[in-house]
Amino acid sequence: MNDFSKIKDVITSSEELKAMLEPPHEHVVKKTITHIDPHIAGYLAMSSIFFLATSALDGRTDVSPRGDKLGFVKVLDERRLVFPDRMGNRRIDSLLNIVENPQMGMIFLIPGLEEVLRINGRAIITRSEEFIASMRWDGKTTGLAVVVEVEECFIHCPRAFKQAGMWNAENWFTKEELPSVNEMFRAHLVINGVSL
């Protein structure tokens, strides 16, 4: 159980928060559009990965990466895009959340580009074999696809990636320095009572 009672001077209202921070520049507010224009479509065509944020009705949230070959996110029209559900670990956290609460967000990346594309909207899951076949995705899907109705799209400034030095290979750890994902996985199984 989380205990936040020891944290002092907590912001508890949007009014308090807004009073502490300067309002955004007009350009930041007005860069948001409500449809997929040719610039957004061009970015999507060059992005091979995005992060999908969803939440259940009880507030549980999930963010998961979705990666595939270039062009796997397809623009259906100026208000809708679609991506395939691929075989994975079968947790289906994102899909379960979408069934309960269709509101979702996506952050798209293009390797080497520090600006990211943010899309927020509402999603549905389809199992239409005819529709999925018409998308001509290479490889096997789960028999499901996610269709997103776009509510807002905008390019996000490069500050986070610049500060992180994300695309600068000189900042990358060596393979030997990286955490052992296998050790982490096994340790977490043991924490949850799985005998190895």
TrEMBL record:
Transmembrane segments: none
InterPro entries (alphabetical): Pyridox_Oxase_FMN-dep, Pyridox_Oxase_N, Split_barrel_FMN-bd
A Pfam family assignment: PNPOx_N
Domain Pyridoxamine 5'-phosphate oxidase N-terminal, first and last residues per copy: 37-137
Source organism superkingdom: Bacteria
PANTHER family documented for this protein: FAD-BINDING, PUTATIVE (AFU_ORTHOLOGUE AFUA_6G07600)-RELATED (PTHR42815:SF2)
Name of this chain's protein: Pyridoxamine 5'-phosphate oxidase family protein
Protein species of origin: Paenibacillus psychroresistens
